[in-house]
Description:
Strand order of the largest sheet: 1-2
Number of strands: 2
Number of helices: 26
Shape: globular
Helix content: over 70%
Structural class: mainly alpha
Order of helices and strands: HHHHHHHHHEEHHHHHHHHHHHHHHHHH
Strand content: under 5%
Largest sheet: 2 strands, antiparallel
Amino acid sequence: MDLFTDAALTALGTLLQPLHLAFLCMGVMIGLVVGFLPGLGGLAGLSLILPFIFGMDPTLALAVMIGLIAPTTTSDTFPAILMGIPGTSASQATVLDGFPLAKRGEGARALAAAFTASLFGGLIGALALTVAVFAARPVILSFGFGEQLMLVVFSLSMVGVLTGDSVLKGLAACGAGLALGAIGAAPATGEYRMTFDTAYLTDGLSIVIVGLGLFAVPEIVDLLRQKGAISSSEMSSKGRLQGVMDTIRNKWLVLRCALIGSLVGALPGLGGAVVDWITYGHVVQSSKDRSQFGKGDIRGVIAPEAANNAKEGGALMPTLLFGIPGSGTMAVLLGGFLLVGIQPGMRMVTDNLDLTFTMIWSLALANILGALVCFALAGPVSRLTTIRYSLIGPIMIVIIFFAAFQVTRSWSDLVALFLLGVIGIYMKRFGWPRPALLIGFVLAAGLETSVYQAIQIYGFRFFERPLVLVITALTVLSVGLAIFSRRSQKPPEAAEAGPLAARWPQLAFTLGVGVFLAVVIADALTHQPLGRVFPLSIGIISAVLVGALLVTQVFTKRPTPALVDHGSGEPGGTRDVHIIGWILGLLAGIALVGFPIAAALFVLIFATVRVDWHPIRNLSMAGGVLLGLFILAQALTLIYPGGLLQEYVTMPRWLGQ
């Protein structure tokens, strides 16, 4: 117990240091903004700040990252309630009752109830994580290389079968992520795999680029397709006290949902996209009067908001204790740990126990700060929601490209972001689970290393170890149950099949994934046995899954509703191409005139063409982008990518000279 006492006191001292509190507050403010703007979320927000934490003191870097994660699922309540648009995937269920409450003039009550529930949910999640650290230490110490290997396999199977509507798509996405993670040097032999003689790929793809491409770009593109204003109504200032009292009266509901959120968050592959619906279903099923659910029942706001804040504490359990991310956000956080030299796993409860407690208590404090700030900003924020997203979107695209360029400060960063962004757009459009691919990508290196370690130490006899057998049985059981349950349920969108030609975009995308896996297999065959076994195995298994999926799609009786933009009735794929064309235009502009000038012109032209002709406003936005890039260049000593213009005209260095 002395070990825990000393670690707790050290962590408390670190938490109360002014510099640590300052960085935590900075992370909280970033997280609030990221959660409020529809289309981002904790995953995209973490991806944006990863380039800036490299080389930072680990405790300060963790303060920023934990501070960002905690309030994201609090501030995402603003757009969910005021606009009917989920700020993040964790606020989807909040829309069902929150938006009707706002439409009948009770937006303040709904927001206050949500913030109070989020506050208590976050604290319960942090408490659950603290208990897990105490209870899990002896379990972790009993895990050998074989158990760790099978635990990673189990988590990947859960990701594959529990995300998205198709087991085949989930498992194939996992496989594609593992294959992407195999790009670069093989850990056993040092051979370069799938680099295609390019220096950029020798170190593999960056988690920052993959995270931004798969999540931030598709969400922003999706919202830009809708064109409209963020919200047409402002929030009333009345009803806040009533909302707080609603939460207090439903305190046992808050406790139950927070515990459910912690448990679901701890299961790899679930997280925010699922936990809000699980708890919403729980509150509906456990209520005697169900008549107002979906029409404006305050319990329909309290339940998911308590759970989605608590699930962050739950998701940190496997991330910290086993090095297995519990969600897409935790996958990026795991990448941040590695950037600052922290290796999650057994050492987090032995050598780094003080750091573990620092993170837990930072999470609790960040939840408190986030909820208080949301209360204070509720009035002003409600007025900001009347801004059209077409004005915010181009600025967000510029910020994303700026963040991507900080990875290696190479033109290849921007090209990789664009290509992965296009892949992410169509994964979302065709129902492929992007978290499955991202978590597979993050776990690829650890899985490959675990395979070599387990075989070298135990041989294939590690399958005889009791815990290995238990985890293997759970893996097979989870996949089997998922497949059985999917087959026994009639898909909600089932309908008569249309002509095969109408489904060719989805078939072409699936075929493209198959071609990528074929390249993985062909490249693997050119390497030594130890260098080829991992990508070859992953490539063959994933190719079989993609083949089965392709056959299913050819003979399916299910249409592809994702190809249609139901908000406008227009073909979604066509409008996607328009936005992709704008992003490609930004890349072309950077090649011609350099990043700062191209970014300002992009914002100016986009606002003029896609919104309206308002010269003062549009020029002010473009000027603000230039000013922001100038300040960042001076503060961080940055040199932006230049273009052809800089080859012939002498310019200030920050303009890409």
